[in-house]
TrEMBL record, chains A, B:
Residues 250-317 form the DHHA1 domain. This is DDH domain-containing protein. Pfam families: DHH (PF01368), DHHA1 (PF02272). Residues 27-158 form the DDH domain. It comes from marine metagenome. SUPFAM superfamilies: DHH phosphoesterases.
């Protein structure tokens, strides 16, 4: 292996290894509504722990999404956090490991379950309010938490169960948007190179994650594209998901994944928006910036938030009104960025 | 740099370096209808040659596509192969380097121009009929010719002009379909890691290549999705580009890039097809396989060909007839693959 872990990470990794090595039972968890990085990191660490003799279980605040269930090698690895079994398991565990978040509110109902346990955090998010206490390996320069788990296993000298390699690849693939977001670094690419050299097949994984699209999603895309609007002069584009089609097709929130990238990728666009009616809740707006505009600030004006280039808000009011207000504010934000502010 | 060139490539690289080092003038060329790998490899090698004191010029059989013009740092690097200047340049050159193809028919009109020159081939395609003679570095295990150019410059110990790093990244990015085709290897990922560590920005390049989509392309996609058909049982899906919309939108062939990936990515599909009427020529059919079916063999039955997972054919006849014949043959091919043949 030609990969070398960055010097700056070694100390935190060693403290994590000290805290989790040689234990009988470990409980792993991640944030609510887990994604590829949360689940991938859990599976990779669990597979490694089991390979070195620790019984590792995954207890999440919300179920593993359907799209990442293929990473679970055996149902017995995952325990429903609402079950009596979960309570019993956590009562008898030696350590809890929180992955892909470092703050208390994000682990939901699992907080109570692991309250008395020594806790380890491995996470690549910026430190938030109400951090989880205990030993931690936090590094916001990492593309994904899966990258940090790789470093832990690498420092431990392996072993490298096959499912763990796949899971770490999925973690980095999904959190970097297939190696195209700005968090894609030389380090993350070196790590996926190692994973591929050990047998992970990029085209098979890609097909598994992005290449098995339910048919309804294409119909939803078709009817949403019919509502694509572009203001070329202002450098903004927006698309609306028609509520009647959404219902008629039996669509689910997963079907909207990546849809905001259509308006965002229109030639000359600085900010792309997606509007979607959520019954009894309001209009969900997704904001994507191509760099110049801080859409986190923009979304905050509507009670939402997120990252500088990707944010969202849930806004009350009729669709026409919300669309008018948001596109107006977005035009202003692009103009401001163009005038150098 | 942690990257190491594979031992198996060293001998060919050294023969190439001997052939191109210390020359006054070099002419670089690639195949007709060049792509990101052809143009990227040319720019990278030209930038390196110029940095070590050789005047390097690009003389292609067909113009550099609009989408890759941003890689050309100065117009004077590229000389029109139909001009008297090109003839004069080639007459006085010391060496010709053919990139991203190794066969005579593919370099079109440039063949006559470089006929009397010592010739070097750098290419990642399987050896074809009528190979170009001379010194060569051919390796079909490489994801892209840009990867082989990287190895040449790496072996030479640099220098690494910025535009060359960008050009090699584009070469590998485009030929691996953004690191998701089956040709994505640990070596290609290690190389892009090096390029990123030297300053290439994955999100900026991705946006440049895939994120500036002309508006008409979304309208064309919308009307094509309306003609998406799925035969779930057979495991095939096909989409037809409506000819009237294509004309009305003023679409160009570039606008169809990647469109066959929509039918291909439908859940449960083994083979995706795209049909398009070409005036006075017939129906252009694109075939994409998710692995089990050899679409090269399938396309050959219709007078076309290509690769095992990506092929095409131009078929005479009315749309309905061609679509019927091709979907019928595709169903048979999937069936055959399922029965284990």
């Amino acid at each position: 292996m030609t990969y070398q872990t960055g010097e700056g990470r070694i100390k935190a990794i060693d403290s994590v290894l000290t805290a989790i090595r040689g234990k009988e039972t470990a409980v792993l968890t991640t944030h609510t509504n887990s994604d590829g990085d949360g689940v991938g990191s859990e599976i990779a660490l669990a597979a490694w722990l089991r390979a070195v003799g620790t019984e590792a279980f995954i207890v999440n605040p919300t179920p593993v999404p359907q799209s990442f269930q293929f990473l679970i090698p055996d149902e017995s690895w995952v325990v429903d956090s609402t079950s009596a079994e979960a309570q019993e398991l956590c009562d008898g565990a030696d350590v809890a490991v929180v992955l892909d978040t470092g703050v208390i509110p994000r682990i939901g109902r699992v907080r109570r379950l692991i309250d008395g346990l020594p806790t380890v955090v491995i996470d690549h998010h910026p430190p938030g309010d109400r951090p989880i206490e205990g030993v931690s390996f936090r590094d916001a320069s990492a593309s994904a938490t899966g990258e940090l788990v790789f470093d832990v296993i690498h420092r431990a000298g392996g072993p490298w169960p096959e499912i763990g390699d796949l899971a770490m690849y999925v973690a980095i693939l999904t959190d970097t948007g297939s190696f195209r977001f700005s968090n894609t670094t030389a380090t993350s690419l070196r790590i996926v190179a190692e994973l591929v050299s050990r047998g992970v097949s990029p085209d098979e994984v890609y097909r598994r994650i992005y290449g098995t699209v339910p048919r309804r999603r294409f119909h939803l895309l078709e009817s949403s594209l019919a509502l694509l609007e572009v203001d070329e002069e202002a450098g903004i584009a927006w698309m609306t998901v028609p509520a009647d089609q959404y219902d008629a097709l039996g669509a689910i929130p997963d079907d909207l994944e990546g849809m905001v990238d259509y308006p965002r990728s229109v030639e000359g666009v600085e900010v792309g928006l997606l509007f979607r009616q959520i019954p009894r809740k309001g209009i969900k707006v997704s904001f994507r910036s191509n760099g110049a505009v801080n859409v986190n600030a923009l979304a905050r004006r509507f009670g939402g938030g997120g990252h500088v280039r990707a944010a969202g808000a849930l806004i009350e009011g009729p669709m026409d009104q919300v669309r008018h207000d948001v596109t107006h504010a977005t035009r202003e934000a692009v103009e401001l960025s163009r005038s150098g502010h």
